[in-house]
Design brief:
The complex is a heterodimer of chains A (about 120) and B (about 110). Chain A has about 120 residues and is mainly beta. Chain A is about 0% helix and about 55% strand. Chain A has no helices and eleven strands. In chain A, strands 2, 4, 5, 6, 9, 10 and 11 form a seven-stranded mixed sheet that branches. Chain A is globular and about 45 Å long. By secondary structure, chain B is mostly beta strands. Chain B is about 0% helix and about 55% strand. Chain B is globular, with a radius of gyration of 13 Å. Classes of the chains: A mainly beta (about 120), B mainly beta (about 110). Chains A and B meet through strand 9 and strand 10 of A and strand 4, strand 5 and strand 9 of B.
Chain lengths: ~120, ~110
Amino acid sequence: GAVVSQHPSWVICKSGTSVKIECRSLDFQATTMFWYRQFPKQSLMLMATSNEGSKATYEQGVEKDKFLINHASLTLSTLTVTSAHPEDSSFYICSVQRQTRRGETQYFGPGTRLLVL
Amino acid sequence: QKEVEQNSGPLSVPEGAIASLNCTYSDRVSQSFFWYRQYSGKSPELIMSIYSNGDKEDGRFTAQLNKASQYVSLLIRDSQPSDSATYLCAVNGQAAGNKLTFGGGTRVLVKP
């Protein structure tokens, strides 16, 4: 498997502020990480693919200027929600992609719950 | 048609019974298939991966893959109340690059 941490686990902020979420791969160097968002009673929605040393690839409909992703090292990717609004309140989950003998497998972090007031 | 489809449930099973979860996918060239378990309020946890046609067993879990029918299933034997969760089927195919496509999940309730 893989050990993935996220910080913070939950955050409450005022509308208009920016929030940074960290995702760390603790037991191997992750070239590729993913960021997902999950609203209540819905499935995971991929927001972007984070590649170490290069720009993130965003999914259609995800504003890259609002959700800033930085994958500065092989163990750390950050997601910054800029000028957060109540509609950004959600469960943000990162995953790391690990190469196994049979293919690539994703392992998820514990998630960060964001509440924007 | 959704790319990965699951019955949303809830699938209610008595304790000790077998829970059978189904998943169909549309990308015929998909190569890797995963089942994740997600408890309420938590992130998904990988429980099974399968890459070849046939069955793969791991403890009380058995994954079954039929690429011709574009169908993957998960059996949970001797279901326990702690198995109550949402089970997400995920598919990794050439069409999606390295990205996983998730089904909507099946909610399982194991009743004591």
